Amino acid sequence: MTITNVLIDRGAKTPVYRQIAEALQAQIRAGEIRDGDRLPSERTMAAELGVNRTTVVNAYDELASLGLVSGEVGRGTVVRLDLARTPDTGLMWSQLFTQMGSGQEALAMEELLESVHLQGVISLASASADESLLPTAELQALINAAIDELGPDVFAFPHVNGAPALREAIAQRSAARGVDLEPAGILVTAGAQQGLSLITECLVNPGDVVAIETPYYTGALAALRNRGARLIGIPQDDHGLRVDLLEQVWSDIRSNSSSRCRTSATPRALCSARSGASACSK
After folding, report:
1. More exposed terminus of the chain, fewer Cβ within 10 Å: N or C?
2. β-strands 209-214, 230-237 pairing
3. pLDDT the model gives residue 4
4. What SS3 class is residue 122?
């Protein structure tokens, strides 16, 4: 089916996913979308509304939590009014979340990334490559080769630190570049965002001052803010982060922290590689 009357107000305080869920809920209650109707796929709905696929997933999850839809194998998301219920637990869930667990940062990120899917817009909000440039055939061949070689084991839970063979290969590649690493000391993450989250959890305490280059990677911004860090933007030039400004900021923090800052004002490791030199402050 085609959804034509879901209106999104991007200037509203209500998250976009909730606007979509409320609009669909109203149509279901009014009988415009009937019991047994199949909602558009997440990708189709996202393209039709010009939003991120994750936004539609969250909207459908919201409807499922109300008992209005269910996911069915082979059919997708289907309206099931016989499941509809109005939960009344007496709990004000919004008041139970911690400040870090409120999800506001994630919602802000979601709103930002939605611009990637707008027609006629070249969005700089995401560092994702154009999908047409991805080596789809080569990736499919590699996946099939892995399945042929490993069989069902390819779908098993991986080693916590990463596959031993992969860590060994990383160590050998690093050695060829002059960096000696032991495979046992290598941790393979699911991606850059998980790596950033692990680093911030290990090194950043709430209230810590962290210098971050601007323009910044939005994923790093989210990870640092979720840890309660206080961020200071440092401009870049043709060689990267402006080390001269970084040193001045560090000096100002050190001179002011004893008299004006109650929380930790010790900058964490701040490094910037420049042409012919590397500067690092702690």
Report:
1. C
2. parallel
3. 56
4. coil
